Amino acid sequence: MPYALALTPASARRMRVLGVLIGSVWLIFLVPPTRDAFARGDARGVLIGTLFVAFAGLYLASMVGWRNYFAKVAAPPPVSERTLALLVAAALAITAALVGLAGEVGLNTGAYLAVMTVLAWPRAGIVAVLGYAALAEAVLWQFTGSLSDRRGLATSILTTGLLIWAFLLLIGRARAQVSAAESEAALGLAQERERFARDLHDILGHSLTVITIKAELAGRLVDAAPERAKTEIADLERLSREALADIRRAVQGYREISLAGELARAREALRAAGIEARLPRAIDLVPEEHRELFAWVVREGVTNVLRHSGATRCTITLDADAVCVEDDGRGLGGAPTESSAPAGAGGPPASGSGLNGIRERAAALGGTVTLAERSSHGVRLCVWVPANLLTTTTSPAKEAVHE
Question: Of 28, 168, 190, 339, which cross-links 122 as Cys (Cβ 3.0–4.6 Å)?
Fold first, then answer.
């Protein structure tokens, strides 16, 4: 069983000392019978008093082991479970001896024995406590001829055992809740790390690709067309500042991208790479709830075109429920194509971090992602999400997805 509270060794020692002190307070109720036994002045009285003292020592030793119940993560147990069982057995033997030597007075140890038993076995110990109470009633009947002793020893045994048992159940439930909260927090942290890694990949992947292309273009133009080279260098500075701003917003956790902005960046990046761009001029047909996803698709799709395709033309189509990015490049390099599949289905052509991020975002909207080679040359990346229920017409982009 996992332990929710991890203490330092020093804290564990302090808790054990505190446990012993708290436990020792209740031993005050054993003082009168112990004092009376020694006051008898005979060997029998000394033996009874010594047994009471020995029982008190066993009880305190069990308190040391129980306090470690809270701190097993941080420190080794000073008293093992086997040792606790031996302590309970020894205490039970002393109780039996006291009853045999002192009669009903020996039952004064019953409540302490109940506590020790429940602490040693938090679940099954309550059954033993019921047995202790029954035995106490039997002993009282034997010595007093009544099941209702005026001191209520049997009642105190049962009450004390039940209270400690309920207390331990509450502790166990609290530990389970803390453990569940820690597990949930760990899962949330892992998911947030994945989200941040995905977003960082999308930001840097696209931005650095465009910056690299523009830097290469500026290098070629610096002698042939200095003014054009200056323009490209100025664009480099602007793009790097935008990438830095995107990273800062991502770190702050509230970064959003816009579909219109990604289309504008795609047009500029494709132009700088010498690729003909066929892009939509408006995004009015796209519902607001789909625009962020479609913006990520445009960013990832254009980044892949710039990096890998060797294309001369890139076409982006938009509709209310679908977006496609197509090129006329070299295709998937002989890898098997991926047909229309639910978001999250993977394959060799779509195993990159960026496309995995697209799948995760599309899955959140119940969407479908496809990556396939065109019948002639090039690759088509499409994402389709369920349209509004009032929309009954089939969109051209959706037809392209399933072409």
Answer: 168
